[in-house]
């Protein structure tokens, strides 16, 4: 493990996961995947941001059984976030609950990006709030969110996302703007590229849902910036939600909707069997009939009863029926 501490590999992984580095080479990721636990965790976070869920799950499944309770907790909550990104909020609940139990009463040294005991507890609680929001338990989501105690920049950003998403789900778009603004400000201050991109999406969704003309204009700009970064830096986990939001706001909707199918196809191909099954069954993931027919696992969806998202988590009427107009975090939540 010592050869990874303070090396270029660890520095690049951390910057790619939480900082200003847009990409890590395939060679670096391969070395990290066979490296020490902390390197594998960072690699899995980077892979998840790229929508490479199968590769991330391979690392996280093993790390979730690590003897270090903090590391195991962080791995479980990260895997839970990847499940949410594929629409599997119910599937994420158990992992987030297990992550919280692992770090109950645990203490230890602080980490600048929250990869510590306090950060692990906050990650698990914010994940549980997002899980409950996604399955329509709005009151539970609020209560769990109230238990979270954000400390570092990353937990403050994520708390802002979840708070904004709860307000959007409650139909109170104006109340969603302030926490979304705070999340964006914290991500900019931390020079966190991936978190900045997601924060722009959450704020764009909040502003767009207010119905105010000036707010909508700003929402269009933010969505365009987020989409440009997601595409430029191959952040597939954010690219398709950005395109859905851009289409809903009227930003070249036809082209954006076409590209959603393209990106989602790549994401499905890069997902593990459980993740693919969750995505195909989820009302939050707008997989088109054509895409389902092309996918080798299309038979899964045909066997699963289709359900619409709970009315309580719609931003506005019929938004969830299209997959548009919903807060990105109602479908997902990232480390």
- Overall pLDDT, averaged? 86
SSE pattern: HHHHHHHHHHHHHHHHHHH
Number of strands: 0
Instruction: Give the second-level CATH assignment, the architecture.
Output: Alpha Horseshoe
The number of helical segments is 19
Class by helix and strand content?
Answer: mainly alpha
Helix content: 55-70%
> Can you tell me the overall shape?
globular
The biggest beta sheet is recorded as: none
CATH H-level superfamily title: Tetratricopeptide repeat domain
Our estimate of the beta-strand percent is: under 5%
CATH fold annotation: Serine Threonine Protein Phosphatase 5, Tetratricopeptide repeat
Q: Using only CA atoms, what is the Rg?
A: 18 Å
Summary tags:
mainly alpha, HEAT repeat domain-containing protein
Would you mind describing this structure in some detail?
- There is one protein chain.
- This protein is mainly alpha-helical and about 325 residues long.
- It contains 19 helices and no strands.
- Helix 9 (about 155-170) packs antiparallel against helix 10 and helix 12 (about 215-230) runs antiparallel to helix 13 (about 235-250).
- The chain is globular and about 50 Å long.
- The two termini are about 25 Å apart.
- Mean pLDDT is about 85; it is low at about 1-5 and about 295-330.
């Amino acid at each position: 493990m010592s050869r990874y501490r303070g090396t270029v590999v660890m520095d690049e992984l951390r910057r790619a996961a939480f900082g200003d580095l847009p990409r890590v080479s395939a060679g670096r990721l391969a070395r990290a995947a066979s490296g020490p636990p902390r390197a594998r965790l960072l690699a899995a976070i980077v892979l998840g941001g790229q929508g490479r869920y199968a590769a991330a799950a391979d690392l996280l499944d093993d790390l979730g059984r690590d003897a270090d309770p903090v590391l195991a907790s962080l791995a479980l909550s990260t895997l839970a976030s990847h499940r949410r990104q594929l629409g599997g909020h119910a599937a994420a609940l158990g992992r987030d609950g297990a992550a919280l139990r692992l770090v109950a009463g645990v203490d230890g040294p602080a980490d600048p990006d929250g990869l510590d005991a306090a950060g692990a507890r906050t990650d698990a609680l914010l994940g549980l709030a997002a899980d409950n929001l996604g399955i329509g338990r709005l009151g539970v989501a609020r209560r769990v969110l109230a238990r979270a105690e954000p400390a570092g920049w990353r937990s403050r950003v994520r708390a802002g996302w979840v708070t904004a998403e709860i307000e959007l789900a409650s139909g109170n778009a104006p109340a969603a703007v302030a926490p979304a603004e705070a999340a964006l400000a914290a991500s900019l201050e931390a020079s966190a590229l991936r978190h900045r991109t997601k924060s722009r999406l959450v704020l764009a969704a909040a502003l767009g849902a207010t119905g105010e003309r000036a707010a909508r204009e700003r929402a269009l700009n933010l969505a365009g910036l987020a989409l440009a970064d997601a595409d430029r830096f191959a952040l597939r986990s954010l690219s398709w939600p950005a395109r859905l939001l851009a289409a809903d706001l009227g930003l070249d909707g036809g082209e954006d909707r076409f590209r959603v199918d393209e990106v989602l196809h790549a994401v499905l191909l890069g997902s593990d069997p459980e993740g693919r099954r969750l995505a195909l069954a989820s009302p939050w993931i707008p997989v088109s009939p054509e895409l389902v027919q092309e996918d080798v696992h299309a038979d899964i969806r045909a066997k699963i009863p289709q359900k619409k998202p709970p009315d309580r988590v719609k931003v506005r009427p019929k938004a969830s029926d299209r997959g548009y107009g919903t807060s990105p975090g109602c479908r997902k939540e990232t480390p």
